[in-house]
Amino acid sequence: MSSQLILVTGVTGFIAGHVVEQLLRAGYHVRGTARSAKVALLQKTNVPNLEYVAIDDVAVSDFTEALKGVDAVVHVASPLPGKASVEETMKTAIEGSLNVLRQAEKAGIKKFVVTSSFGSVLESSLKASFAGLNFTDSDWAPTTHEDVLANAEDPYYLYFASKVLAEKAVWDFAREHPNVDVATILPGLVFGPYAAIFPLPSNVSQLGTNSFPWALINGTAPPMAPPYIVDVRDVAKAHVLALGLGPVVQPESVGKKRFLINAGIYTWKQAAEYLKVVRPELNIQDLDKFADMPGPISTLDTSRARDVLKFGEYIDPQTTVVDVADALVTVSKTW
């Protein structure tokens, strides 16, 4: 148990909500950032050991008040593609990460856990996921800003690019500041139920990656995507475990505390087949309507999380699929 105060950015986000819940269960005190319009609503929840501070733009806002008394930072906030222009998306991802790190380091904070993505290791958008390769958390996507502009119409590419360029900026910062201790978490595609202590999504546009299983239970096949799957609760678990890791001497640790987190490979066709059995009341499309994978599926090597984080067992994909389906049915009834 710990009485440390942890700052969590983007506290109402899908992953961040579970990070907060698990930190509180582990005995930490948590301060979450959210936009001003949300803070007043959040404060009404009155959760013990959880407080909020308004940060309206993570890329430029002053974090002075937010960082007071903080022992470590878990930076989760990140833009999703399609919500803003390409330039704004990239700025929020990259400058948002650097703004938090710069101000926190100046405030004397040394411990950081940052949310990245499996997209940071892929060679290029979807193609590398279906090339029969094996990716480790020592691999890096060779994405450049020029590549982003050339692929601006591809939402997958834009999301992966924002993640890899932001994470590279984080590790560059770590090299320049050997007093800081950084870990990054690289989850596969994240699904699962919503954190209980925060407001639920109020419409389909707020579902994030859960829009894929939402399509599945409403009679359509989700868009083609890499069939990696990890439960949001396991992603939060990885953040908390990384926070508890002892420091490693920099700069030798730069890039070493980087952890791919993924429960396995599980296609939407497999998910549909299973849900037809355990949730027959759902409107699942006929199995022959699901497209085959366009190539041999590449694997994600999660051995570093096993060996260094001591991660243990993952929530199995079938449990995740059922839990997210049930959660989405419940959420939709509130709309």
From TrEMBL:
Record domain NAD-dependent epimerase/dehydratase: where: 6-196
Keyword Oxidoreductase: yes
Top-rank taxon: Eukaryota
One annotated GO molecular function: oxidoreductase activity, acting on the CH-OH group of donors, NAD or NADP as acceptor
InterPro entries, sorted: Epimerase_deHydtase (IPR001509), NAD(P)-bd_dom_sf (IPR036291), NAD(P)_dehydrat-like (IPR050425)
Keyword Oxidoreductase recorded: yes
Key words, A-Z: Oxidoreductase
Family: Belongs to the NAD(P)-dependent epimerase/dehydratase family. Dihydroflavonol-4-reductase subfamily.
Name of this protein: NAD-dependent epimerase/dehydratase domain-containing protein
Organism whose genome encodes this protein: Ephemerocybe angulata
